[in-house]
Design brief:
Layout: H1 3-9, E1 10-15, E2 18-23, H2 34-49, E3 55-60, E4 64-66, H3 71-76, H4 85-104, E5 109-113, E6 116-118, H5 120-127, E7 130-134, E8 138-140, H6 151-158, H7 163-172, E9 176-177, H8 178-184, E10 189-191, H9 196-207, H10 212-226, H11 230-245, H12 248-258
Parallel strand pairs: 2-3, 3-5, 4-6, 5-7, 6-8, 7-10
Antiparallel strand pairs: 1-2, 8-9
Length: 259
């Protein structure tokens, strides 16, 4: 995929350390087509290596944050000799890798949600470290309504919500409002529609002022220690924290502040 093709799917703007990735695509659905997934992967890879990027904001503007996979694109591959199995395998593996890149990025990732986040779109929200949503935003895992089940989106969602809550989402396929999502643990804040963009960008700018190495190490450690037994979690976190205190930037800041 060329840089031009990528820019047609995602627009990028960098302001004071905050990289805003805005989903565009060929429709307002911002579907996770094969091209969109690749474009996101490229943008995230580039951001991870760019020292000027401190925070990443993912924004699907308008009434649809992201409608999940492009079902028309999938349907076209039903004409393949294998009824689309090879295509689906590649698509879902690429999507899973991209979602992991969102979560494991050394830069904090923030979802900015104005409208509906459904299926893979909800997965993208859940994959981010933080999520801020408009009062108008809604969320669902609708696979059961089409005779399937949102198994891969549920991987990210289940790491944000309790088991029974994610089961409710996945088993009903119903649409839930932003207040429900905030109470369930999917969102950090629910804001008036006219305020959500400004609030999210201001929050991101605040995070961008932090020591990038400590933030990257700390973010990875926070995720890692949650998977470890308690004793190992403390040992791992302690090693990382000692490294922070021995960081020349930290030492310089201490000398400047406390003499």
């Amino acid at each position: 995929m060329s840089a031009r093709e990528t820019s047609e799917l995602i627009s990028q703007s960098l302001d004071r350390g905050v990289l805003l990735l805005t989903l565009q695509g060929t429709s307002s659905a911002h579907a996770l087509s094969e091209g969109m997934i690749h474009a996101l992967q490229m943008a995230l890879n580039d951001a991870a290596k760019n020292e000027e990027v401190r925070v990443i904001v993912l924004h699907g503007p308008g009434k649809i944050f992201c409608a999940g996979h492009d079902l028309k694109e999938i349907a076209r591959h039903r004409a393949d000799e294998d009824a689309g199995k090879a295509y689906l395998t590649s698509l879902l593996n690429s999507c899973g890798n991209m979602m992991q890149t969102v979560t494991m990025s050394p830069k904090p990732t923030i979802a900015l949600v104005e409208g509906i986040a459904t299926a893979g779109g909800l997965q993208l929200v859940a994959a981010c470290d933080l999520a801020f949503a408009s009062k108008n935003a809604t969320f669902c895992l609708p696979g059961v309504n089409q005779g399937g089940f949102c198994t891969t989106p549920a991987v990210a969602v289940a790491r944000n919500l309790s088991r029974k809550v994610v089961m409710e989402l996945a088993l009903t396929g119903d649409v839930y409002d932003a207040d429900w999502a905030r109470e369930a643990g999917l969102l950090n804040r629910v804001l008036p529609a006219e305020d959500v963009i400004d609030f999210t960008m201001a929050f991101a700018l605040k995070l961008a002022t932090r020591n990038p190495k400590a933030t990257a190490d700390g973010k990875q450690t926070l995720y890692r220690q949650m998977e470890l037994p308690l004793e190992q979690a403390y040992a791992h976190a302690t090693d990382v924290m000692i490294g922070h205190f021995m960081d020349p930037v930290q030492i310089e800041d201490e000398q400047a502040n406390w003499g």
